[in-house]
């Protein structure tokens, strides 16, 4: 059974300028239901992540300042959202959604969070609209509880997973793979276990060929028993921030390759949505919905 984390708390009333990209978290589950891809029974409601679990991946002082709403104003500006209890709770819900989805993935093969992919949050900092790093916390959670031994985080958002790389720099059991726009945000990159920088304008054929080669090598090198997949759709040619030239079909083929590579090896996969900033929100939602459809196809739900 496909399990999907979703909760109304994912949507928080933010500044008007940020409302449009947040709409997708309402529209993705609605579209999945509308098309009959899933039913209401597939969704589960997460709770608030526990502080002890957050601390497996984040610095104590940073976490305390967020929870107490005493974060330094400079860090608040770096994050890009006005700090509030509602915003912090939203992040706690999405982190718990990814933790729970990772355990469902071990049971069913693959599981989703309709939000998440907050990969710019590092051990002691937030950035780029990310406060806590949901997949980093969930990876540390699985390792801490001996539910996995070797974890690979595959980040295919157009922006480098700098926060994830920062948290797991040099880690011997949790490995980071980031394939991203070389000239895109963040402009100062962290060092992932494997980084695959892309030139502006790269198209489907070159992108998919490079992904197949690099990811096959990563899977062989690290031999993971669990995968986290950050499936950002800001690689699309229609994306306002992406700078790449990937079609909707190319994005779907990307997902299919990741899912098939993991399924063939018997590796469970947790998926978080990541970024997407196309001019028309239908392009964002359709590409994300394709990720669910592709997982269902590959894993045989």
Task: Walk me through this protein's architecture.
- Belongs to the histone deacetylase family.
- With 301 residues, the chain is α/β, with parallel strands linked by helices.
- The protein has one domain: Histone deacetylase domain (Arginase, Chain A), CATH 3.40.800.
- It is built from eleven helices and eight strands.
- An eight-stranded parallel beta sheet has the order 2-1-3-8-7-4-5-6, with helices on both faces.
- The radius of gyration is 17 Å and the shape is globular.
- It starts with a strand and ends with a helix.
- About 3% of the residues have low confidence.
Topology:
Elements lengths: L2 E3 L10 H7 L1 H11 L8 E2 L6 H4 L5 H8 L5 H7 L5 H24 L1 E4 L20 H11 L6 E5 L6 H6 L6 E8 L12 E5 L5 H19 L3 E5 L17 H18 L3 E4 L8 H19 L2
Parallel strand pairs: 1-2, 1-3, 3-8, 4-5, 4-7, 5-6, 7-8
Helix pairs in contact: 2-11, 6-7, 9-10, 10-11
Whole-Å distance between the termini? Answer: 6 Å
CATH topology: Arginase, Chain A
Unreliable parts: 11-20
Tell me the radius of gyration: 17 Å
In terms of DSSP E residues, the strand content is: 5-15%
The best one-word shape is globular
**CATH homology-level superfamily:** Histone deacetylase domain
**Which structural class do you get from the secondary structure elements?**
alpha/beta
Q: Using the 3D structure, state the CATH architecture.
A: 3-Layer(aba) Sandwich
Counting structural domains, the number is 1
Q: Which strand order does the major sheet show?
A: 2-1-3-8-7-4-5-6
Sheet with the most strands, sense and barrel status: 8 strands, parallel
